[in-house]
């Protein structure tokens, strides 16, 4: 019976969810649209016999600037869920971000072995729950908090409503086990939407970043920034970094693609804190574009989930290797031997077609 439930979970994940998003067209239109509008300006006759992809993220050295974004309920995609993702990230020498709504706890993920891991945080109405969770993540060796700030209420996810989405009975939100917060109740529409409405604190505001800093020494990344105005406030609030994200284009229609918003945020940050891009990355060329526009690194979500569903840990390792190889190839063919050599002069976008080429 359990094996059948697991197979049904994976089948649902790979068909209903994926096809629903493809049919709606929202994620393709909004999350990815602008990726193809950037063009490269490659430099030639550069010795690219050696290429260094290593990056330093919040002081931690990683093998490449490609990291894993927080995605919830991974055991719906594969029985090993977050365990498989954590092992694959560690083997690839990069960072995994664990979702608050994971089907494996922070302690369980830490038990998979060494690795650099961040923890994504939703702020619940019960602040004691939040404080406990943050301290547990810190004790488990997580290195940063990625505070999601674009979800005071869940966007209208029509596929979830149509399918009356909820967790299957053999799975729970493991971080909240024993707190009566781990299950999603069945409803007439989306169980997740009802859960968010009942548990997530809609009063979350900039002052709460200061509050978080009183309960943890971990650096706080603000995830969900799309404007220069909010970037400047994040700086004043003491954020350690910014993650440009539109929540996979599932929250608010007509927000810009992350790649379109990136440069505005980077300019507003003025180099004082790192800016990362989360969303729309499907190829190594997308990684290069993001770095050329000022990102310190990228986070990937859907590619990890789909590869996890297809082949577990091996699938996640494969997709990370594919992106690494494509990124390295792009660096070689644009004449870049290290990340610091990737510059704004290597890309031209639809919003600066008339930009004068730099003098040689």
TrEMBL record:
<dbReference type="GO" id="GO:0009854">
    <property type="term" value="P:oxidative photosynthetic carbon pathway"/>
</dbReference>
<feature type="active site" description="Proton acceptor">
    <location>
        <position position="247"/>
    </location>
</feature>
<feature type="binding site">
    <location>
        <position position="157"/>
    </location>
    <ligand>
        <name>glyoxylate</name>
    </ligand>
</feature>
<keyword id="KW-0560">Oxidoreductase</keyword>
<comment type="similarity">
    <text>Belongs to the FMN-dependent alpha-hydroxy acid dehydrogenase family.</text>
</comment>
<dbReference type="GO" id="GO:0042742">
    <property type="term" value="P:defense response to bacterium"/>
</dbReference>
<feature type="binding site">
    <location>
        <position position="122"/>
    </location>
    <ligand>
        <name>glyoxylate</name>
    </ligand>
</feature>
<dbReference type="InterPro" id="IPR012133">
    <property type="entry name" value="Alpha-hydoxy_acid_DH_FMN"/>
</dbReference>
<comment type="pathway">
    <text>Photosynthesis; photorespiration; glycine from 2-phosphoglycolate: step 2/3.</text>
</comment>
<keyword id="KW-0601">Photorespiration</keyword>
<feature type="binding site">
    <location>
        <position position="120"/>
    </location>
    <ligand>
        <name>FMN</name>
    </ligand>
</feature>
<feature type="binding site">
    <location>
        <position position="245"/>
    </location>
    <ligand>
        <name>FMN</name>
    </ligand>
</feature>
<feature type="binding site">
    <location>
        <begin position="70"/>
        <end position="72"/>
    </location>
    <ligand>
        <name>FMN</name>
    </ligand>
</feature>
<feature type="binding site">
    <location>
        <begin position="301"/>
        <end position="302"/>
    </location>
    <ligand>
        <name>FMN</name>
    </ligand>
</feature>
<feature type="domain" description="FMN hydroxy acid dehydrogenase">
    <location>
        <begin position="39"/>
        <end position="352"/>
    </location>
</feature>
<dbReference type="Pfam" id="PF01070">
    <property type="entry name" value="FMN_dh"/>
</dbReference>
<keyword id="KW-0323">Glycolate pathway</keyword>
<dbReference type="InterPro" id="IPR037396">
    <property type="entry name" value="FMN_HAD"/>
</dbReference>
<keyword id="KW-0288">FMN</keyword>
<dbReference type="GO" id="GO:0003973">
    <property type="term" value="F:(S)-2-hydroxy-acid oxidase activity"/>
</dbReference>
<keyword id="KW-0285">Flavoprotein</keyword>
<feature type="binding site">
    <location>
        <position position="148"/>
    </location>
    <ligand>
        <name>FMN</name>
    </ligand>
</feature>
<dbReference type="GO" id="GO:0010181">
    <property type="term" value="F:FMN binding"/>
</dbReference>
<dbReference type="InterPro" id="IPR013785">
    <property type="entry name" value="Aldolase_TIM"/>
</dbReference>
<dbReference type="InterPro" id="IPR000262">
    <property type="entry name" value="FMN-dep_DH"/>
</dbReference>
<feature type="binding site">
    <location>
        <position position="250"/>
    </location>
    <ligand>
        <name>glyoxylate</name>
    </ligand>
</feature>
<protein>
    <recommendedName>
        <fullName>(S)-2-hydroxy-acid oxidase</fullName>
        <ecNumber>1.1.3.15</ecNumber>
    </recommendedName>
</protein>
<feature type="binding site">
    <location>
        <position position="247"/>
    </location>
    <ligand>
        <name>glyoxylate</name>
    </ligand>
</feature>
<dbReference type="InterPro" id="IPR008259">
    <property type="entry name" value="FMN_hydac_DH_AS"/>
</dbReference>
<feature type="binding site">
    <location>
        <position position="99"/>
    </location>
    <ligand>
        <name>FMN</name>
    </ligand>
</feature>
<feature type="binding site">
    <location>
        <begin position="278"/>
        <end position="282"/>
    </location>
    <ligand>
        <name>FMN</name>
    </ligand>
</feature>
<dbReference type="GO" id="GO:0005777">
    <property type="term" value="C:peroxisome"/>
</dbReference>
<feature type="binding site">
    <location>
        <position position="223"/>
    </location>
    <ligand>
        <name>FMN</name>
    </ligand>
</feature>
<dbReference type="GO" id="GO:0050665">
    <property type="term" value="P:hydrogen peroxide biosynthetic process"/>
</dbReference>
<keyword id="KW-0576">Peroxisome</keyword>
